[in-house]
Write a structure and sequence with these properties.
This protein has helices spanning 14-27, 37-46, 81-87, 107-115, 156-168, 178-199, 203-208, 210-230, 236-240, 242-248, 256-263, 273-283, 288-307; strands spanning 7-10, 31-34, 48-50, 53-55, 58-60, 71-74, 97-100, 120-126, 131-133, 136-138, 144-148, 172-174. An eight-stranded mixed beta sheet has the order 5-2-1-6-7-8-11-12, with helices on both faces. A four-stranded mixed beta sheet has the order 4-3-10-9. The chain starts with 6 loop residues before the first strand and ends with a helix. With 308 residues, it is α/β, with parallel strands linked by helices. α6 (178-199) runs antiparallel to α8 and α6 runs parallel beside α11 (256-263). It is globular, with a radius of gyration of 19 Å. The chain has 13 helices and twelve strands. The protein folds into two domains: 7-176, NAD(P)-binding Rossmann-like Domain (Rossmann fold), CATH 3.40.50; 179-307, N-(1-d-carboxylethyl)-l-norvaline Dehydrogenase, domain 2 (Orthogonal Bundle). 44% of the residues are buried. β11 (144-148), α5 and β12 form a beta-alpha-beta unit. The chain binds NADPH dihydro-nicotinamide-adenine-dinucleotide phosphate and ketopantoate. The site of ketopantoate (KPL) has 8 residues, from α6. Ketopantoate binds next to α6. Residues 8-151 form the Ketopantoate reductase N-terminal domain.
Length: 308
């Protein structure tokens, strides 16, 4: 059976540190974090605090030659993916398993187009409430990583990742219908990430104000309508299943998109509302709520540039 001994991570932000810290605790130097000189200097000088605990990782620059890893994990933002792909070239071999924890429904295809590697599993991180402020990351729950093969098989790669996750203590779920699960997560991000970014609202606002949560659901329903056309199986009950999840998150917790807006960073709107509007045109499905969300978030991004 395939065994994962050597793991590489690219992207030491909210998601990367949440899982990277567990990998580091068990794998020690067999766990490497790819980062350029400037980032490594910053990480070493300022340190990385995860729930108040300082962490030191084994950093490696993109130029450093090394044997391929058994597993490469991507945890960058969507717009950062092309550079991250270039930066992990030395770490991806023909047998390397790849997990992309990025939100959205396009990163796995982008990675496949670059590496033509047949070991890319579809994956995502769910029910995590990690918040990053500069070099500090805090979370009350790491949630879990849901992953699987497109043809839903319990392949050797799926089992090797399962064994690793059990060894290092990462909660996981193997999806037996990963295209449905990917779209379900996409629907959630389209709903909560975008409305929270526009309203500047942490989860507590949606937990206590029905009018705010209704807006989330109406944006999500446009994804359900697209899913019917795309054949990925979302139904109205999938919308309802998000309520118990959001209710469990810390009221102070913030979506990754709200964190981007507050930090003045570019958001992932192109991969959420942008994608919804693109698919809406393709399938001739009206997407008025996402069209407005797209405009509002793009304006917020442009206003940020004016302030710089
Ligand atoms: N935060 C959350 O709760 C959740 C986020 N997600 C998804 O996970 C993905 C990652 O999000 P999140 O962790 O919040 O993002 P962050 O912005 O917190 O982290 C991304 C990190 O990647 C680093 N990075 C970018 N490019 C490179 C590169 N080429 N080499 C090395 N490091 C790089 C950035 O470094 P630097 O800061 O130096 O640029 C940053 O530390 C996104 O797609 C997001 O939607 C999914 C579930 C929940
Ligand atoms: C589901 C949610 C909102 C939190 O895990 C997320 O994926 C994000 O913040 O990007």
């Amino acid at each position: 059976m395939k065994k994962i001994k050597k793991v590489t991570l690219v992207g030491l932000g909210a998601i990367g540190t949440a899982y990277g810290s567990l990998l580091q605790d068990t794998l020690k130097d067999s766990f490497q974090v790819v980062a350029n000189e400037e980032r490594i200097k910053r990480y070493k000088e300022k340190g990385i605090l995860i729930n108040n605990q300082p962490y030191h990782f084994h950093y490696i620059t993109p130029e450093t030659n090394t044997d391929p890893a058994d597993l490469v994990i991507f945890a960058v933002k969507n717009a950062e993916l092309p550079q991250a792909i270039e930066d992990v070239q030395h770490h991806v071999g023909p047998d390397t398993i790849i997990l992309s924890l990025l939100n959205g429904i396009s990163s796995e295809e982008e990675i496949y187009a670059a590496f033509k590697n047949e070991h890319i599993l579809y994956s995502m991180s769910v029910e995590i409430d990690a918040v990053r402020t500069f070099n500090e990351v805090r979370f009350t729950t790491r949630g879990r990583i849901v992953y699987g093969e497109m043809e839903n098989s319990l392949s050797e790669d799926v089992l090797a990742v399962k064994e690793l996750f059990e060894k290092v203590g990462i909660d996981y779920e193997i999806s037996r219908n990963i295209s449905h699960t990917m779209w379900w997560k996409f629907m959630i991000n389209v709903g909560i990430n975008q409305t929270s970014a526009v309203l500047k609202a942490p989860y507590g606002v949606f937990q206590s104000l029905p009018i705010a949560y209704e807006w989330v659901e109406s944006a999500m329903r446009e994804v359900v309508a697209l899913s019917v056309k795309a054949g990925t199986g979302l139904i109205e009950e999938d919308v309802k299943k998000f309520w118990p999840i959001i209710n469990k998150l810390s009221p102070e917790g913030k979506t990754s998109m709200l964190q981007d807006v507050e930090a003045g960073r570019k958001t992932e709107v192109e991969y959420f509302a942008g994608k919804v509007c693109e698919l809406g045109k393709k399938y001739e499905v009206p997407t008025p709520i996402n069209e407005q969300l797209y405009k509002m978030i793009r304006i917020i991004e442009e206003m940020e540039k004016l302030n710089k």
